[in-house]
Amino acid sequence: MFYSETKPFPESFLWGASTSAYQVEGAWNQDGKGPSVQDLHKPEKFSDFSVASDHYHRFREDVALMKELGLKAYRFSISWSRVFPKGAGDVNPQGLQFYRDLIDELLAAGIEPVVTLYHFDLPLALHEQGGWSLRSTIDAFEAYARLMFETFRGKVKYWLTINEQNVMINHPAAMYPGNVPSQNELHQQNHHMFLASARAVKALREIDPATKIGPAPNIIAVYPKTSLPEDVIAADNWEVIRNWLYLDVAAKGYYNPLAAAYLKEKGLYPHMEEGDLELLAENTADFLGLNYYSTATVSAAKNDGHDRQPRNGDQQTMVGEEGVFRAEENDALKATEFGWKIDPVGLRTTLRRVYDRYHLPVLITENGIGGREEIAADGQVHDQYRITYLTAHFRQAQQALMDDVDLMGYCPWAFMDLVSTHQGYQKRYGFVYVDRGELDPGTMNRIRKDSFDCYHDIIKTGGCSLQEN
Length: 469
Ligand code: BGP
Hints:
Elements: E1 14-18, H1 21-24, H2 55-69, E2 73-77, H3 80-83, H4 93-108, E3 112-118, H5 124-129, H6 136-151, E4 158-163, H7 165-170, H8 183-207, E5 212-216, E6 222-224, H9 229-252, H10 257-265, H11 276-282, E7 288-291, E8 296-300, E9 325-328, H12 344-358, E10 362-366, H13 384-402, E11 407-410, E12 432-434, E13 446-448, H14 450-460
Parallel strand pairs: 1-2, 1-11, 2-3, 3-4, 4-5, 6-8, 7-10, 10-11
Antiparallel strand pairs: 8-9, 12-13
Helix pairs in contact: 2-4, 6-8, 8-11, 9-10, 12-13
The site of 6-O-phosphono-beta-D-galactopyranose has 16 residues, from loops.
């Protein structure tokens, strides 16, 4: 649909940027921090998370750059094991102080903190006891969330519960170095994470009722490969299993019936205790965060032993499931150098589908493009490909606003270069370049990329500069 005139972004729009604790902070064992599951990763060719972008020591310089960029919001996560080194029990005062200082620095710079409680970095001590397979981890999460809500009452207005719970269930390898749980166990863990989020929502309503909270799953529109009705229904099925299972619990407070039918058919429906469904029903989200990078294209399963392909996928490279769907290439779309399909219109489609289902405000908590980059001879970093990617996506977000989607804001991934989940610093995402090598920490100097200036202009003009280029 074409509109005769482009409407501006609202004044209150949260122009933001994202990071997560373990990918950016470093200082993995300093000032009393306990290890998380991510600290077990020791890749030979890629950076681990021990130093990362050294944000822990340089956060004031980084916040000054955020202010210069013009950010209205900064979405980051708290490292649970920096605050509770063993996940539960004793609090690490220095860990808590780091987040007090960071949040105060942001507020002094006029930047709204949007804080994720848990972004892939379960405290190792909890993991070793059984992690999300145990209901005691729900109690630990609630205690952690309560402390955060009490500590930052009146300062943080937007909380996110769990980052990409659906990715942790569908692509679990990155969360469980060396030992991926069975499908049954994963879906039991999934249920426990739903309960943990609902307990956090309940706690926030008691502690700081004016503050808003929501989930941050990875949500993408799923397309049928052809107009064959069998392909269309396969796309519907996969969209329900991958997306709506997660958002229905968070937003509506119940298991999607089709997703439940799938889980029962596969023998994966979780064990529930009395009161679980009531807890979910009574504690739903105020808004929906979503991470969007790409779309998926699928065709009907043949149930012939070959539906599961390709064998290895990541969060954006779908792997088929026997008897459910086949993953397909979308030949209409170009891909990033890491193979993720680029689909700005898919962002508009995704936002419309989400808003149509839930009628809740939506915040884009991640979206961006990763690529190999280096400092040019002129000492600058020229990332025109990121400018092209982001401006195309911003324009589609604006179209979604015109479609009447209640879009609160947009936090591209990432504010600065950080360790990617699979490719270290070979895959960079930031507006700010971090001068470090893959294994060599380098100078850690921060360099504004060309996309920094472009995003600065977009924010400054409230999106008007998007019409100019
Ligand atoms: C999301 C994660 C982020 C981030 C991003 C880019 O799934 O929430 O933590 O890593 O994807 O992914 P990658 O680092 O694999 O390129």
